TrEMBL record:
GO molecular function, one term: (1,4)-alpha-D-glucan 1-alpha-D-glucosylmutase activity
Record-linked SUPFAM superfamilies: (Trans)glycosidases
Glycosyl hydrolase family 13 catalytic domain residues: 5-437
Classification of source organism: Bacteria, Pseudomonadati, Pseudomonadota, Gammaproteobacteria, Enterobacterales
Stretches of the chain forming a coiled coil according to its record: none
Entries under CDD domains matching the protein: AmyAc_MTSase
Listed GO biological process terms: alpha-glucan catabolic process; trehalose biosynthetic process
UniProt-recorded name of the protein: (1->4)-alpha-D-glucan 1-alpha-D-glucosylmutase
Amino acid sequence: MNIPTATYRLQFRNGMTFGGATALIPYLKRLGISHLYASPVFTATPGSTHGYDVTDANELDPALGGREGFDRMVSALKAAGMGLILDIVPNHMAASLDNAWWRDVIARGEKSAYAHHFDIDWSQRLTLPFLGDDFDTVLENGELSVQADPVTGQPALVYYDNFYPLVAGSWQGEAHAILGLRDKAQLAALHDRQPWRLMSWRDAPNSLSYRRFFEITGLVGVRVEDETVFADTHALILELVRSGAVDGLRIDHIDGLADPQGYLTRLRQHVGPDCYLTVEKILGKGEQLPGDWPVSGTTGYEFIAALSDVLVDDANIDRLRDAWHAQLGRTVDMRSELRAAKLLMVDRNFNGEFTALLSLALAMGRREAPALPESAVRQALRELLIAFPVYRTYGTAQGLPAADAALLHKMMDNIQRGPHAVDPQALDFLAAVLAGRVAESVASEATRFRTRFQQLTGPLMAKSVEDTLFFRQNMDLALNEVGAEPLPRTFSLARFHAEMKTRLAQQPDALSATSTHDTKRGEDARARLYTLTEAPEYWAECVARWRQMNQANVVQLDDGPAPRPAVAWMIYQALAGVWPVDLQADDAAGLQALEERFVTFVEKALREAKQRTDWIETNDAYEQAVLDYARHLLSPNNRAFLQDFVTSLQPFIRAGLVNSLTQTVIKLTAPGVPDIYQGSEALNFSLVDPDNRLMPDYAELEQLLMAEEQADPHSQESWSSGQLKQFFIYRLLHLRQQMPRLFRRGDYLPLTVSGEQSDNLIAFARVENQQALIVLAPRLLFGALDGSLAGASIVLPPQLANRQYRDILSGEAIFLTNSVTLRSVGGFTFAVLVSA
């Protein structure tokens, strides 16, 4: 199999085209990248900023350069000895009139050749939730008419710029006779004769006839489990793999599919054994990928979570939590908060999906368990969804795998032992349906219920945790990351080492990520914010002082102050994370540039929290007050605060830069394939999307790399520009290319650190036959940034002792006997020693 030594994730669109990527290949080659890892490049809705809203899976987007531009890029990659990995989207397509298949379904209804390509419930009319209000109101306002479709010339029901094709035969007489129709009664009758119905976007959470991606009604689920649909949606993908143009595929949202294992098996059969496959999959605590999936691993969110064990100060995190509770004026019970977020999702945001699932259960219950009250089944289903601890199980028509059956049993036990116990018979009934223990007469319905249940638990978990809870509870934003555990836990090097041993055993060829297009903040912002756990009282004092300095800009609204203390804590922390290293209080242009990005983030954070405003019902007065507060913080006229903020932030900045290098060194040497997200080879202080999807300044990055030999660890400029980080990456990626077996299969050996500074160092080794690598990196240095860590010593096991080594970072050669200290490798805080 073609396993990368390092990937580079490039976000196409937002200015990046195939031509732009081609021009970057020499830079990526020099950096040490083996494979370009491309975001979706198939034709998407016009103006798409991400490409996941595919309208034609069998066309390379003309907006990016089309097939010719793509082929030139591939040729340049091959000439450079590099490969290509494509991000593909089998779960959904755009529910857009720009999608010819979707348009055909609207025009022909269930008679369309594509009617069953999409996951549509044809027991009702196809819902089109794209009106600004309900149909009757839109009709009464005169916003609907019949006009000729500018593409086909056929009659269409027009709503602003949207032309919904009318089904042939749904009107009398010649087609031209109804053009220009605005009579409300006739329009209503014509609308009623369509196999689809227009509705308000606000009603989508409650009534939708098709499976959507998460809460996005503009993305319709695809029935890729069907062999014909698979063939139709993968024709170009398979051609590109078979021709050798594409070396690997990243599967987006694998948990959305009806049968992930079945899909992956089919895909593997078509792409062959050498194609590198990874899946976007969030693993819960202790969860591993199913062993029968024919993939190399995940895209690496669990690796981000593992790094927090290295960089979080577990000895002090409770003091940060206490300071946060003092700010809130109450003690937060995270289990209760998680439950509240899940309840909101089940009862409101996914009410339609829940209701459809309940209807399936009740239909089976009337035959299998007629004595069960509807209310009991409803409550049991609700609690089962809320209690689900992972994204999903992987049951099929044959029932649940043994591990998933055991998980279900444990969940049922937890529900009945907890404060929200339900009717045991109702819970047993649902468990029997999920496990496939039902009569043959309802087996097909049970399979459908199981599939729908499994396709709901993932979005429910993601929207509850990542996009609600993590925007409400902000003790330390660094911990509110995709794939992170929502409940409090301990952090330890022992746990990290155990995770890496498991990673080597379970998925040594998985991607190791530190930033992605979906992470909540850039890796260097996260590295900086980890340091709050090292100085909780200092941080709390800063926030209290800053709040006082800006108190006059807090607005008193009918429902309370804006912002409340909890939101202010979040705002100051987010600002601390994103603050450019060298930005000064008197830099008006720099402050303005930051404000534009930061205000967009704050608005999104407020809406995702879903407390005083959200995406469905915006609270304009509240939002405006908080956004004005954020703008005031960055106003050049707010000089006293800005000077205080910049000065107070310096120790966090310095410690964060150390953390940045530590997580970089670990990513490049621990088990897994390091993935460099665009621009993250230098410093990445981005905020959540869309900020993290902007194109980096590649001219500046190339200039930094040209001068990599000048990366002086004793130069503040080398640290603050990101050059030192880029230098580390450059050196270690080339080492990975020289010693691929060591990094892919080498044993992972935790090394014991002793001495008075033992807590401030992580040490491990990789060993493969006679090849050996020793990694030493600092941690928890907020209070000891000037220390050399010379007091820490590492005893070397026999296979590492009495050997000659070379430090990849400093170039120094050294002979090690039975121990190593940082003083013995030149006194530089970091060391990556490779056996000579």
